[in-house]
Amino acid sequence: MTRSVVSMPATRRPADTAAPGAVATPSMPAAPAATPAVRRKLAIGVLRYNPQEPSERPRVQTYEVEEADGMTLFIALTEIREVQDASLQFDFVCRAGICGSCAMVINGRPGLACRTLTRNLPAQIMLAPLPVFALIADLSVDTGRWMRAMSERLETWVHLAEQDLDLRRLEARMEPQLARDIYELDRCIECGCCVAACGTARMRDDFVGAVGVNKIARFRLDPRDERSDQDFYELVGDDDGVFGCMSLLACHDVCPKQLPLATQIAFVRRKMAGAGWKR
Prior knowledge:
Layout: E1 41-48, E2 59-66, H1 73-84, E3 103-106, E4 109-112, E5 124-128, E6 134-137, E7 140-142, H2 143-154, H3 176-185, H4 193-196, H5 199-203, H6 209-221, H7 229-236, H8 250-254, H9 261-277
Parallel strand pairs: 1-5
Antiparallel strand pairs: 1-2, 3-4, 3-5, 6-7
């Protein structure tokens, strides 16, 4: 015998009807809509001066910018130049903290505009060009001329024992840790922040700065460079070199690449003192 099954339609309980035996709970009121956050108004003061205009005098010009999420000083300055004042001069290339072109004094402290978030700064921001270097205009300075003169003076290139190079020969092997140590010192982007923060560089025009001492430390590590400590002493063994450092170490504090400048200055000073003692 075949048993027939009759399906009964399900009876739906009204949404507001509690199940038998259930305890009724009061309905929760809907959450109020979130109010949009009020964006800050930034007052960015720029020390402006163009030495190419003899009649112009240094002045502080203030611009008002509405802060955006993730805004950097570079973005704020770009907005000022594109929307408010096309004559504002500042430098940039990479926008990623690699070229060092956008270095400037930010609220009294040298730093990179492209790596400085406005949310980490007060609403009142004061910008000025880096000291020590030749001023082009406004926030733009000529770090290239200073860096080239320093590099030529310290001969910051590998001095090979063999003058005749064989490009078909394999490069000499190097221990991985030594290669990493050299690379660590080679990360300097020559932005000029360490020089601008240096007290000695403000008093001695020929002081090589932490950037120069760091380069000496880098080439001293390189096994391909044939120079001795006596040779390096001739380059930085005086008051315009490593012995001119007053150990204030502001260079170490402001380096955007966080290089171990304090360690390298102390290391080179100790080695140069030993080389000078042997003279």
